[in-house]
Automatic annotation (TrEMBL):
<dbReference type="GO" id="GO:0016891">
    <property type="term" value="F:RNA endonuclease activity producing 5'-phosphomonoesters, hydrolytic mechanism"/>
</dbReference>
<feature type="binding site">
    <location>
        <position position="110"/>
    </location>
    <ligand>
        <name>Mg(2+)</name>
    </ligand>
</feature>
<dbReference type="GO" id="GO:0003727">
    <property type="term" value="F:single-stranded RNA binding"/>
</dbReference>
<dbReference type="GO" id="GO:0005737">
    <property type="term" value="C:cytoplasm"/>
</dbReference>
<keyword id="KW-0540">Nuclease</keyword>
<keyword id="KW-0460">Magnesium</keyword>
<protein>
    <recommendedName>
        <fullName>Endonuclease V</fullName>
        <ecNumber>3.1.21.7</ecNumber>
    </recommendedName>
</protein>
<feature type="binding site">
    <location>
        <position position="42"/>
    </location>
    <ligand>
        <name>Mg(2+)</name>
    </ligand>
</feature>
<keyword id="KW-0378">Hydrolase</keyword>
<dbReference type="GO" id="GO:0000287">
    <property type="term" value="F:magnesium ion binding"/>
</dbReference>
<feature type="site" description="Interaction with target DNA">
    <location>
        <position position="80"/>
    </location>
</feature>
<dbReference type="GO" id="GO:0006281">
    <property type="term" value="P:DNA repair"/>
</dbReference>
<keyword id="KW-0234">DNA repair</keyword>
<dbReference type="GO" id="GO:0043737">
    <property type="term" value="F:deoxyribonuclease V activity"/>
</dbReference>
<dbReference type="Pfam" id="PF04493">
    <property type="entry name" value="Endonuclease_5"/>
</dbReference>
<keyword id="KW-0963">Cytoplasm</keyword>
<comment type="function">
    <text>DNA repair enzyme involved in the repair of deaminated bases. Selectively cleaves double-stranded DNA at the second phosphodiester bond 3' to a deoxyinosine leaving behind the intact lesion on the nicked DNA.</text>
</comment>
Length: 243
DNA sequence: GCGACAG
DNA sequence: ATCTTGTCGC
């Protein structure tokens, strides 16, 4: 599928679109239920040929069994600009999700949701566009900060957005308060944490519990691992086919 | 202006 | 994201 005709073309348009969508995010809701289908999505790029391959892998959230897989190929829709990642990745991701024969009850993204400069990371953006329940799991702190969670699997610490220029005590009426935007979660004992944030229609406690369930054997959720390997394999296959 | 910066 | 070998450890 081609990139949507109304997809933002400039940074200014993208910022305006985020401003419009941010009001529609619902940062609360239940976690997955017994037998729910969870989708993992991820993308791989070939900047040389301006190609992007997205993968969507459906798992049974309870058993972690793979139920279905789908991929989609497209043109890169937007340059990589921190804070505007969704505009680069989502067109292909939407196509991959559409290629599934079943609708996921939850989508786990590789990146952030509410933990975003304007509170609309790709997970939240995807949730608002599709109405699906979503959350994000990122591998690095981006611009946020947290204290180190305990070293045991299951430990976590709040992920904070610290307003710029806040060194001392912000007197009454001065500055903006620090805001909890997610959690640094230790999914494996002794291994660096991942960063969980709400996307849409799910709460932070629920997203954290789901992450720990999906990341029982590895640092990253099984959904992300499966989607990551699938899209890279698909990209490699595609590259070798055209050569 | 400069540096930092999800993937 | 992607470019890239071997190596230490469970």
């Amino acid at each position: 599928m081609p990139i949507p005709a109304d997809w933002p073309t400039s940074e200014a348009e993208a910022l305006a679109e985020q401003e419009r969508l941010r009001a529609l995010v619902e940062p609360y809701g239940p976690g997955p239920a017994e037998g729910d289908l969870v989708a993992g999505v991820d993308v791989a790029y070939d900047d040389e040929r301006d190609l992007v391959v997205a993968a969507a892998v459906l798992l049974d959230h309870t058993t972690l069994r793979v139920v279905e897989e789908a991929t989609a190929v497209g043109r890169i829709a937007f340059p990589y600009i921190p804070g505007l990642l969704a505009f680069r990745e989502l067109p292909a991701v939407l196509d991959a999700l559409a290629a599934l024969t079943r609708t996921p009850d939850l989508v786990v993204c590789d990146g952030y949701g509410l933990a975003h400069p304007r509170r609309l990371g790709l997970a939240s953006h995807l949730g608002v566009l599709t109405g699906l329940r979503t959350y994000g799991v990122a591998k690095t702190p981006f611009t946020f900060t947290s204290t180190a969670p305990g070293s045991e699997r299951g430990s976590w610490a709040p992920l904070m957005d610290v307003p710029a220029g806040e060194g001392g005590e912000p007197g009454p009426g001065e500055g903006r308060a620090e805001e909890v935007v997610g959690r640094a979660v230790r999914t494996r004992t002794g291994v660096k944490p991942v960063f969980v944030s709400v996307g849409h229609r799910i709460g932070l406690d629920e997203a954290t519990a789901s992450t720990l369930h999906l990341a029982r054997d590895y640092r990253q959720p099984e959904t992300t691992r499966r989607a990551d390997s699938l899209c890279r394999r698909a990209l490699t296959d595609l590259q070798r086919a055209s050569a």
